[in-house]
Every structure is written in C-alpha cells, then in structure tokens.
Amino acid sequence: MSSYGKGTRHHFRGLAVFAIVLVLVIVIVFVWMQSRQSAPVPEDAIYLYFVDVGQADASFILTDEGSVLIDAGTSDSAPTLYHTINTGGDTLSYLIITHPHDDHMGGALYILDKMDVQNIILPMDTAKTAVYKKFLGAVEAEGAEVFYADADFSFVLDEITFTFLAPLSDIGDTNENSSVIRMDYGGFSALFTGDAEKKSEKLQLEAYGNFPYGKLDVDVLKVGHHGSSSSSTAAYLKAVTPEYAVISCGAGNSYGHPTKAVLDRLEEADAEVWRTDLSGTIVFTIAGETVTVAGG
C-alpha cells in the first residue's frame, strides 16, 4: 500500500477522534449549564451563603422551594453576587434590605434587572440616599409585593421562619436602625444583623433577655457592621452564644475591619470565626442535624 493511503487513513482517524472529543465537550458543557440553571437542593437540606462581595454585605439562603437574599452588596460586586444566587434559578422569592446604605443595597438594582423578584422587604428607616431613591423607583416598576418591616414582622419559606427582631424603635441612625433578622430551620438558627451597633444591641437585650437560650441565641451570627468595634459587644455575644461567627469584609479594607477588639470578644465567646476576606464566599449546608461549612 502506498504511503499516501496510510496518510489518508491516519488523517480520517484523527478527524474521527477530534469529532468524538468535540461531541463529549459539548455534552459536558450542556450538562453543566443545565445543572447551573436548576441547582437542585438535596431533600430536607438548605444552603446558607455569605457571599464574598468585598467590603459589603450579602447573605443568600437557597432551598428546594425558593430563595432569600438579605442585602445585595455594592454595584461593583453585583455581577459576582448574581453569578452566585443565579445557581438557584432566575426567580428570587424574597429580597430583604436591612438598611439603605450603598454597601448593603448597591447591587439591588442589578438583581432586580436580572431576576424575577417576588417579594421585597424594606427597612422602616426613612433615610433616602440617592441609590435608595433610584431603587424605590425600580421596585415600583418591578411589580413585586413590598413590605416595610419592623420588629415582629415574619414570614415562612419552605419550613424556614424568618423573624425580624429589630429595629425596636427609631434610634436616629441608619446603621442602628438596621433590620435584625432571625432565621430558624428545624434545630438550626442564624442571626443577620446588618450594621446594627451598640444602641440597637442594648435594646435587643432589654427586649429579649441578656442570657443564653433566649430569642437572640443562635448557631450562626452574621457579625454586625463588618466586624466594627461599635458592634458585637460582650453582653450581646453572651446572649447570642454563636457557634459560628461570619464576618463580611474586604481584603485590606481601609476601615481596619474586623477590629482586634471584636476578634478578641468572639474568641472569648468561643465562636468559630469565618471571614470572607480570608475564605471567600462561605457556605453552610444544613441537612437534618448535620451542619457543614466551607469557604470558596
């Protein structure tokens, strides 16, 4: 047989192998895309994400029945946030804004534009920053159900109860007027504190008790105000008794967050500390009595 015939046979064999590899790659990409769109949650399990949005805040709860976003980071971090929460599909059951500061709601416009948001829960705080005014206009256009939450407001999603514990009164400061939200799922609990500081914490302790096993006692604490020393007092941590404390802050931020004082207090409270500036997005998986945590 001529060398020409051998070369032709090898050429077609190479094309056949290439075609098979190409088909496999297409199939793998298709399956991956489908899994991203559906992202099924195991039965009787939920995911709790503390998304790495830099020096900002965004927490995301994903269940088999829906999802909740508490705060939305900054406008700069919005694409990153969307990439994370879109793993649960294009519908967001609840969007909660704890207070109208850019680092907690700057990405909300982007999320409203990209996703079908069914319910929006806004703070009672009347401070109207420029970004908040623009957001309110977009909320009106969205057509979602809108609620204004104060203490005792609550809702249930897929056997998860969300209860608003604060603000208990108008303290006259936007950070201090942050919504503080308790989440309960079976025997698991978490507390999302926005940027609430000492005055809010004091009112909470007076209302709910300054001792363990009360309304403030939870497994996971989203540490107030990115780990600022103006939050997470020793008395508050004594009542919360967190097993895990999550701090959302940016690497090398100019505020010095988290402060050494807060880290010392968390160590004294025997809390396992996780930080987005060190671990990236932090994910808790809650399945029955089992809780696992991992950094991104």
Task: Describe what this molecule looks like in 3D.
The chain is α/β, with parallel strands linked by helices. The protein is 33% helix and 26% strand. The protein folds into two domains: 1-38; 41-295, Ribonuclease Z/Hydroxyacylglutathione hydrolase-like (Metallo-beta-lactamase, Chain A, 4-Layer Sandwich). A hairpin with a 2-residue loop joins strand 14 (282-287) and strand 15. The longest helix is centred in the N-terminal third of the chain and has 36 residues, at 3-38. The radius of gyration is 23 Å and the shape is globular. Residues 25-41 have low confidence and may be disordered.
Give a topology summary.
Elements: H1 3-38, E1 45-50, E2 59-62, E3 67-70, H2 78-85, E4 91-96, H3 102-105, H4 108-114, E5 116-123, H5 130-142, E6 145-149, E7 154-157, E8 160-166, E9 180-185, E10 188-192, H6 198-208, E11 220-222, H7 234-240, E12 244-247, H8 260-268, E13 272-275, H9 276-279, E14 282-287, E15 290-295
Parallel strand pairs: 3-4, 4-5, 5-6, 10-11, 11-12, 12-13
Antiparallel strand pairs: 1-2, 1-14, 2-3, 7-8, 8-9, 9-10, 14-15
Helix pairs in contact: 2-4
